Amino acid sequence: MEKPNSWIAHVEAFVDSARASNQQAASVDAIAVLVHEDLLTLEGLVREMEQYLTASDHVIRARGILLLSEVLSRLLEKPLDSRTVSSLVEFFTSKLEDWQALRGALIGCLALLKRTKKFGMVESNDAKSLAESFLRNVQVQSLAVRDRKLCFEVIQRLLDVYPQAVVELGDDLVYGICEAIDEEKDPRCLMLTFSLVGTLGRLFPDPSGPMGNFSSDVFDILSRYFPIYFTHSKGDGLDITRDDLSKALMDAFSSSPLFEPFVIPLLLEKLSSSLPSAKLDSLKYLNSCLRHYEADKVVKHSQVIWSNLKDVIFNLSPHRSSLSTYGSNGDMDSEVNQIADEALNCLQTAISHLNFPDQDSFLCLIIDDEDIGTRFWSVTSIKKYSGTSTEIHCQLSALGSILSIASKVSIYCCTKVFQKFFSCLMDILGVSGKHPSKLCVTDHNTCSDGLNFGALYLSMELLTSCRELTLSSKEFSPEVISEPRSSFYVLKNISRELCDALGSILETPESEEHVYCAVKGLQVLATFPEIYSPVSEATYEDILVMLMSIIARRSKETYLWELSLKALVQIGLWIENAHDSAKATSYNKLVIQRIVSMLQSNDSTISLSLKLVAISEISSIGLYLLRIVQAFEEAIVSNLRACFEGNLKSSDVLVPLLQCYSNQVLPRCHTCGNFNDIAVQVAVSIWNQIENVAVFRSSILMKDVLDQVMMTMKHLVAGCTEESQFLILQKAYGSLPKTFFIAEPLPCALSQLEGLQCIQDTTLMSCRDEWIFSLFGSVVIALRPQTPLVNVKILLNLFVVLLLKGNMLAAQALASMVNKWPADVNKSEISYSLDQAIEEILKSCLWTSESSSNFIDRDSCFHKNVVLGLAWIGKGLLMRGHEKLKEIAMLLLKCLVAGKYVDITPFQQHENGKDAGQDASSPLATFAADAFHVFLSDSEDCLNKKFHATIRPLYKQRFFSSMLPILLSSIKESDPSSKKVVLYRAFGHVISDTPLAAVVGEAKKIVPTLADALAMLSLDILNKDLIYSLLLVVSGILMDNNGKAIVLENVHTIISLLIKLISYPHLMIVRETAIQCLVAISALPYARIYPYRPQVLRAVSTALDDRKRVVRQEAVRCRQAW
Amino acid sequence: MVVGLLNANPIVYKKKERRARNVPTVIDEYAVEPIDEQEIFDYIRDIKDPEHPYSLEELKVVTEDSIEANDKQSYVRVTFTPTIEHCSMATLIGLCLRVKLMRSLPSRYKVDIRVAPGRHATEAEVNKQLNDKERVAAALENPNLLELVDSCLESTYA
């Protein structure tokens, strides 16, 4: 009590109800801090506050008590001695009588009750007297929501922490709580009351105790809430959903078996309600109650429960009539399906909990139900699936799910169900274990009058659930199998015949449903766990052979084929999971070998694409992946050789083969771990093939094959570690033709280059060289940055020369090299810094382009190569954020501006048509403009994450902001409109390829130029894609708040531009987007856009008659918007 | 004037799924997609009934079969079925249909709107009223009526 005045001021501030609420909160905090830091003792506080706490004015008294309690609730972690706590409890307990100050008293009680033992908690006899006082004095339902909630929290706390103390109160307590929770309506409080009841149920389990006496009253209160009817919307801030409430009520219901006589009749009554949500809720509650109540209590209801559940299941079974939803959950979310699922869950709980082997169990109810029997017979008399009504089919699926649920519960249940139904089913299907000799006859019979679908379906359901049972049951006893009455024994005896029957169904399939069931059955039979397995080794092999022969011979029957493939994959995966070596061998022998031999042979019964589908599916089984990869390798290599020898047919094979290999199979190798070895092996053997062939027989390049081989090579190399990459690189390097090194090992002798250029003009590269260089390029592209390169100088040279010859891949390889160039030269063996290398490259390229300015027209193709090469190299540099990029960019810009061979105006170009437009304007400038597209676009072929490019974050944005001013100023300066076209083109590429957010930021500078660019570019049909991407930029700006203001400044130009684009004839999406932009503009301030209204409406009404429907619909919307 | 609902409890039918058009995989930029029945139905199906919060489709006032369109001759005929025979809202529904189509179709189109034969007490009168240019124009001059029509059409621009 150093500074008594300071804190008394706080007290006064709080007690004065005129002060602002945040001020009051601050003063509570201040006092709490003082007490916490021992600057003020609680006793002192109480003593000083005496005048407030006992004031006769109830407002002041209430505020005083509230202050004390608020301070206490902030001091939960402050150690207090038991005397203080006890006197405080006494005080607050006595204040519960004082209804005017009740709120403070409740908060105080709650704060004290929340204290933990460590810091000094309330004694249990104090708690008891608190509870007594509470029950005597507090009329909960007459209070406001806030206070009611506090009350419930106090009770909950008492029940949770002082169960012994409050239990002694007995009847009074239960009665008091009943009174308190009666007619509660607020969801927040309801959550608490429900859990209160739950706790009560646990505290008083004795049927003759207080809960027993009041259980009907308590339930009476609770049952009014069922089923929960909750209409609050989400945004009410309460953070409680209907599901929360429903869950809480469910816990309350199932908390005490004492409720059982009331709950179950209520639930069963509500189950017949027409409201789906009530149905669903009652099923959920029933499920939970069955779980929590003791079985002998519920068992007397079992007859009623069963008949109700049966009704629900049979009436609401999901429609599985259409094939698409067969087996897969089509639209399983609908309420009806939820109800059906919940009913089945409930059934399962009932069977497993109400299971007494000696007396009538729930299961017997089901099995012996006559109704089930009649349904069983009616359903199994279906001959054909297609002719029957959906009603019967629903019955079938309902019956199937009931039986499968029942047999899934335990081995005992499974045996019972099998005894009752399975043998009947087998008889209907014509399969009987006893007379194997008559098999052929019966088989024949069944086939001729159409196999019974109902029986087939049900037996598959039973088989599946039997298998699931073996998976879930942990304990295994051999006598289960050997016991002659058990389901496994029955299955074992019959499996051989069953397999044959299923096989014969597949021979002459009647309908897709039959096929589905039969394949499923085979799959289930083959995937039983080893110890339970009903099928013998021979039968197992027969199943595999059956499925394989379908794969090999019956690819025309798509559905059957796909299902069989899936089944095979599942069987394989099962082997892998179960580590079943015996089965693995037969699988390997029968499936893998055959599949592999299919890949090698050229039989025409099954198309290549299907073969590839099959094999790539099978390769998902990790066990056999290696074998399949080998097969692929062999096939690739042999086909490649055939290709080189001029066999055009194998090139047709090779492309899909490689596609499948690199897209499906290789990624799987990654997960298996031994990717490196595989990749190195394949890559090396591809190189070997090329080395072995001196000259290609065929003179055609086989471009598609080369592309695919390159792609595969990239994938192979990209996935390897540095060491393996180095191996491949060396191999590849060794395969490069020696002549090339002899010809130009020296760094850039200009004359030689000149000479070389002349040579390549006259003599084409041989096909083989083209292959070798392209493949070598792909290897280089996919290298990791850390992989050391060999003979960098020579490589650089080689690629520059190739680039000048027009090999795009060389440019990309060069770009990758530049991109991944080690930053620290000293560490690596490369004696050559990046700067030097770029100088070198530029020198060779620049030289040509400088000299080229003298004879542009003579050699435009050559320049195209240079410019595109520069673009790629620039991209490599840009991505790593290198300085030299500026030089390249400026060079390209110079090309843009310097094109002087342009006399034809764009209007004439347009009239001249496509070809003239392209060739007559300076091609060099156009290529340079397109180079900007290369800079900023993402490429699939190289310089991306997959191929380990060095990518500096935000490189596009950086480039954009550095290039923009330059481009804008040069656009302003350039005079002839034709020159402007290319500049606009470059500008367009830059802004459409930069991320939109960056562009929108600069909208102010861009928008006018953008509009001009669009107007200019729309004159040439070749720019249509560019126009579309620019329009997207416009719409992006329109979506932005900042951008809207800028559009508004230029609204005149933009609107007239968009109106023009509405009739853009070449691309529908341009028209559509233009109209959408106009819709967006209509949201701009009315006064500014009003003048354009007639103009826009006129333009849009012509769009109403557009060729394309989408445009018309947009136009209708736009017209309405304006 | 307080008037009870004319048809207090109409039968509400289920909405049909919007049929997805089978878009050809290779899009021909210059191919013409003529205006057809389905397109017109898509325009008018969501018009709200003047007295119920249901769409005309849900009340089966219009169906796709009741529309006849000919793009070449620029002609559309919509036949609608009022929910009850003496429904005085029939003219209003017709007016909504007309305004909607007027705003959605190119100006070359001639739109003909009729009550289904035998489904309304004053069929001839309503037909005449709906297809009289002058009277439609006059009706749209009336601000109250226009407001009513616009409120019915609002849901079609979603």
From TrEMBL, chain A:
<comment type="function">
    <text>Key component of the cytosolic iron-sulfur protein assembly (CIA) complex, a multiprotein complex that mediates the incorporation of iron-sulfur cluster into apoproteins specifically involved in DNA metabolism and genomic integrity. In the CIA complex, MMS19 acts as an adapter between early-acting CIA components and a subset of cellular target iron-sulfur proteins.</text>
</comment>
<dbReference type="GO" id="GO:0006281">
    <property type="term" value="P:DNA repair"/>
</dbReference>
<dbReference type="Pfam" id="PF14500">
    <property type="entry name" value="MMS19_N"/>
</dbReference>
<dbReference type="InterPro" id="IPR016024">
    <property type="entry name" value="ARM-type_fold"/>
</dbReference>
<comment type="similarity">
    <text>Belongs to the MET18/MMS19 family.</text>
</comment>
<keyword id="KW-0677">Repeat</keyword>
<dbReference type="InterPro" id="IPR029240">
    <property type="entry name" value="MMS19_N"/>
</dbReference>
<dbReference type="InterPro" id="IPR024687">
    <property type="entry name" value="MMS19_C"/>
</dbReference>
<dbReference type="Pfam" id="PF12460">
    <property type="entry name" value="MMS19_C"/>
</dbReference>
<keyword id="KW-0234">DNA repair</keyword>
<keyword id="KW-0539">Nucleus</keyword>
<dbReference type="InterPro" id="IPR039920">
    <property type="entry name" value="MMS19"/>
</dbReference>
<dbReference type="InterPro" id="IPR011989">
    <property type="entry name" value="ARM-like"/>
</dbReference>
<dbReference type="GO" id="GO:0016226">
    <property type="term" value="P:iron-sulfur cluster assembly"/>
</dbReference>
<keyword id="KW-0227">DNA damage</keyword>
<dbReference type="GO" id="GO:0051604">
    <property type="term" value="P:protein maturation"/>
</dbReference>
<dbReference type="GO" id="GO:0097361">
    <property type="term" value="C:cytosolic [4Fe-4S] assembly targeting complex"/>
</dbReference>
<dbReference type="GO" id="GO:0005634">
    <property type="term" value="C:nucleus"/>
</dbReference>
<protein>
    <recommendedName>
        <fullName>MMS19 nucleotide excision repair protein</fullName>
    </recommendedName>
</protein>
<feature type="domain" description="MMS19 N-terminal">
    <location>
        <begin position="46"/>
        <end position="315"/>
    </location>
</feature>
<feature type="domain" description="MMS19 C-terminal">
    <location>
        <begin position="701"/>
        <end position="1081"/>
    </location>
</feature>
Automatic annotation (TrEMBL), chain B:
<comment type="similarity">
    <text>Belongs to the MIP18 family.</text>
</comment>
<dbReference type="Pfam" id="PF01883">
    <property type="entry name" value="FeS_assembly_P"/>
</dbReference>
<dbReference type="InterPro" id="IPR002744">
    <property type="entry name" value="MIP18-like"/>
</dbReference>
<dbReference type="GO" id="GO:0007059">
    <property type="term" value="P:chromosome segregation"/>
</dbReference>
<feature type="domain" description="MIP18 family-like">
    <location>
        <begin position="37"/>
        <end position="109"/>
    </location>
</feature>
<dbReference type="InterPro" id="IPR039796">
    <property type="entry name" value="MIP18"/>
</dbReference>
<protein>
    <recommendedName>
        <fullName>MIP18 family-like domain-containing protein</fullName>
    </recommendedName>
</protein>
<dbReference type="GO" id="GO:0051604">
    <property type="term" value="P:protein maturation"/>
</dbReference>
<keyword id="KW-0159">Chromosome partition</keyword>
<dbReference type="InterPro" id="IPR034904">
    <property type="entry name" value="FSCA_dom_sf"/>
</dbReference>
